């Protein structure tokens, strides 16, 4: 398994278990299965609404001593309603409490978007705060403090475009250590990867399998399927693997992190086994041709008439 390196020498397993969309009733078992079968990287977020259930798994596994806390990389994310400076560390402490942890390995600003503290998920323009009211640097400076206090070992961002990364980097000496973004063969993000690599920012791929279990309101009726793409299917057959494993391997081979979500035992175990084979040059060439700049997570749910968020990916 490849590992992503951080400037202080810490390392993160490339393949982790995603928990977005994992049902509360299934995620405890999924995380336990993952940890008992070799996963050492779990990706969480407070807005997934299941951190307390993920925390039950951590408590059981770490107290049972089958796996040591320090051997596992845990990521979580600051939700958009806690961007004000007085809200960042309390939100982080809630996450730590839910996850039953003393520290996180990585804490990410989930989106370059601020919403009002009392809002869960924004539905109207009035639910937002503008970035003039709560600049990203205000939020970031608190995340730096959280790192200095030892509550988190590394800090980064998610869903940041090159212009947003540049904007933040101009205002701080603490370059984000990670940018977690949607990344798969339909959205290969070559320019962003190159920028991040030049600036020692690691990248993690979310929705690597196309997130087919997203709620219908987030889906376009005619969205293309990654798992049913004929090129991916052919390569899967060639390697005696399933399509998900090909997609995971592709990300791992490119040097990014990758966090496939599953609550199914066979798929959880099978996805980690993606680390065990190699895609060859022909495979990589064919997959490179699938790039069509297609996003499953369009971000349109944050772009409303009357708020200050337009084109949040700067595409
Ligand atoms: P399940 O949880 O039943 O395994 P993403 O990580 O892109 O968000 O995709 C998650 C979706 O992909 C879930 O619906 C998950 O279902 C499914 N999935 C996970 N692993 C595989 C796999 N190896 N092959 C096919 N589907 C998978």
From TrEMBL:
Transmembrane segments: none annotated. InterPro entries: AKR (IPR020471), AKR3G (IPR044496), Aldo/ket_reductase_CS (IPR018170), NAD(P)_OxRdtase_dom_sf (IPR036812), NADP_OxRdtase_dom (IPR023210). The keyword NADP applies. It comes from the Bacteria. Keywords: NADP, Oxidoreductase. GO terms for molecular function: alcohol dehydrogenase (NADP+) activity. SUPFAM superfamilies: NAD(P)-linked oxidoreductase. Its EC number is 1.1.1.-. Belongs to the aldo/keto reductase family. This is Aldo-keto reductase family 1 member B10.
């Amino acid at each position: 398994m490849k590992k992503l390196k951080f400037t202080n020498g810490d390392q993160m397993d490339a393949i982790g278990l995603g928990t977005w969309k994992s049902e509360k009733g299934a995620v405890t078992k999924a995380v336990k299965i993952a940890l008992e079968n070799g996963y050492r990287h779990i990706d969480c977020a407070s807005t997934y609404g299941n951190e307390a259930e993920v925390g039950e798994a951590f408590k059981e596994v770490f107290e049972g001593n089958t796996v040591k806390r320090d051997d596992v990389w845990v990521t979580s994310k600051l939700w958009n309603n806690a961007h004000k400076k007085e809200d960042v560390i309390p939100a982080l402490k809630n996450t730590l409490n839910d996850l039953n942890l003393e520290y996180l390995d990585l804490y990410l600003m989930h989106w370059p978007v601020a919403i009002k503290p009392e809002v869960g998920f924004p539905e109207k323009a009035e639910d937002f705060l503008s970035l003039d009211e709560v600049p990203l640097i205000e939020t970031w400076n608190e995340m730096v403090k959280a790192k200095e206090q030892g509550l988190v070992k590394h800090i980064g961002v998610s869903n940041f475009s090159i212009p947003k990364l540049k904007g933040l980097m101009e205002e701080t000496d603490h370059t984000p250590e990670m940018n977690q973004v949607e990344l798969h063969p339909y959205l290969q993000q070559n320019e962003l990867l190159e920028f991040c690599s030049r600036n020692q920012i690691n990248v993690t791929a979310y929705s690597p399998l196309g997130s087919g279990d997203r709620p219908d309101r987030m889906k376009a009726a005619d969205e293309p399927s990654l798992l049913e793409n004929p090129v991916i299917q052919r390569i899967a057959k060639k390697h005696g693997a399933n399509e998900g494993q090909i997609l995971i391997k592709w990300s791992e081979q490119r040097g990014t992190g990758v966090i496939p979500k599953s609550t199914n035992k066979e798929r959880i175990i099978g996805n980690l086994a993606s680390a065990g084979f190699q895609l060859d040059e022909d495979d990589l060439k064919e997959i490179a041709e699938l790039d069509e700049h297609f996003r499953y997570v369009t971000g349109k749910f944050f772009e409303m008439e009357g708020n200050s968020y337009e084109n949040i990916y700067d595409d």
